[in-house]
Amino acid sequence: MKFFEKHKEGKKILFVCVENAGRSQMAEGFLRKHAPDGWIPVSAGSRPTPGLNPVAVEAMKEVGIDISKQKPKELSEELVRSSFLKVSMGCIDQAECPAVFLGNYQDWGIEDPKGKPIEKVREIRNEIEKKVKELVTTLESN
């Protein structure tokens, strides 16, 4: 991932989904826990909800990460431009949010936990943690 070499001054990684209430918030929480020094996780949504998905909050507490104080944030062009890696959690198309597709971008294709029982949200949480840990391995080598 050569783009890391060009952006040493800012190390922000942006996780994006539509509501910024579940998947992207969990990814932000996992990266905050696992990231090497200097890497900054942030999440946002194209249509953020007023609050977090309480089942996602509960699932994260089960693994020792408290995301209850995090707030859904609106995706802005400034946020996109200031982040050198943008990660779509799998719910945004180019018509919904074309700004995300600028520059370095990944789509993780993670299922939305909204309305799902805790058992399914745990599976989604575990998939997100696996992807974040894979990302951290890449960050540590740069």
UniProtKB/TrEMBL annotation:
<keyword id="KW-0560">Oxidoreductase</keyword>
<dbReference type="GO" id="GO:0046685">
    <property type="term" value="P:response to arsenic-containing substance"/>
</dbReference>
<dbReference type="InterPro" id="IPR023485">
    <property type="entry name" value="Ptyr_pPase"/>
</dbReference>
<feature type="domain" description="Phosphotyrosine protein phosphatase I">
    <location>
        <begin position="11"/>
        <end position="138"/>
    </location>
</feature>
<protein>
    <submittedName>
        <fullName>Arsenate reductase</fullName>
        <ecNumber>1.20.4.1</ecNumber>
    </submittedName>
</protein>
<dbReference type="Pfam" id="PF01451">
    <property type="entry name" value="LMWPc"/>
</dbReference>
<dbReference type="GO" id="GO:0008794">
    <property type="term" value="F:arsenate reductase (glutaredoxin) activity"/>
</dbReference>
<dbReference type="InterPro" id="IPR036196">
    <property type="entry name" value="Ptyr_pPase_sf"/>
</dbReference>
<keyword id="KW-0059">Arsenical resistance</keyword>
